[in-house]
Amino acid sequence: MPNSTTPYALPSTLDSDLEKVRAYWHGLIRGKASDMPYWDDVKLSSLPQLVDRLMLISVFGKPERFRFDIVGKEIVAQFGKDFAGGFADEMETHAPLNFIRAQASATVEGRIPTYYRHDDYVRLLLPMWGDGHIGMLLGAVTAA
To answer: Strand, helix or coil at 70?
Structure first.
């Protein structure tokens, strides 16, 4: 568990929806060989009640970039337009994406789940392994 000096550290408790996403992610870990699941094991349909609040973000390295591959309908509605397929560094970010690049970078560098709280929403990012590196982030956004 990260300590209080870890950027975007998880709180001691998550709201029930974010905890469901974190528990799903944790349940995908394959034994003791890894501390995170493989991204190709994720099936958003396994969380049907939350799918509209989920996103999958591809991670690219050197230079580090983040592309929004799948974005749930509620996240799109809150943002104001569909941004699936877009790169975080090419977008004007505002709710619910405030500080998304910094949080995503901290998730990759720390190799741990991260959490961001804003006045109106909370966001969880979870790292996933693939092709020899963290290749994808599972994200969830809920109301604060």
So the answer is: strand
Cβ-contact 96, 121 below 8 angstroms? yes
Q: What is the pLDDT of residue 32?
A: 73
| Average pLDDT, integer, range 70-79 | 98
User: Distance (Å, rounded) from C-alpha 120 to C-alpha 111?
Assistant: 26
Classify domain 16-143 by CATH architecture: 2-Layer Sandwich (3.30)
pLDDT reading at 119 higher than 80: yes
Domain limits of the chain? 16-143
Whether 96 has a pLDDT exceeding 90, the answer reads yes
Q: Which amino acid is at 143?
A: A
Q: Residues with Cβ < 8 Å from 50, sequence gap 6 or more? A: 17, 20, 21, 140
Whether pLDDT at 4 is above 60: no
Do 100 and 71 form a contact (C-beta atoms < 8 A)? no
Contacts (Cβ under 8 Å, ≥6 apart) of 139: 54, 55, 56, 57, 123, 124, 125, 126
Q: Are 106 and 3 in contact (CB under 8 A)?
A: no
Which residue is associated with the tokens 């877009």? 86
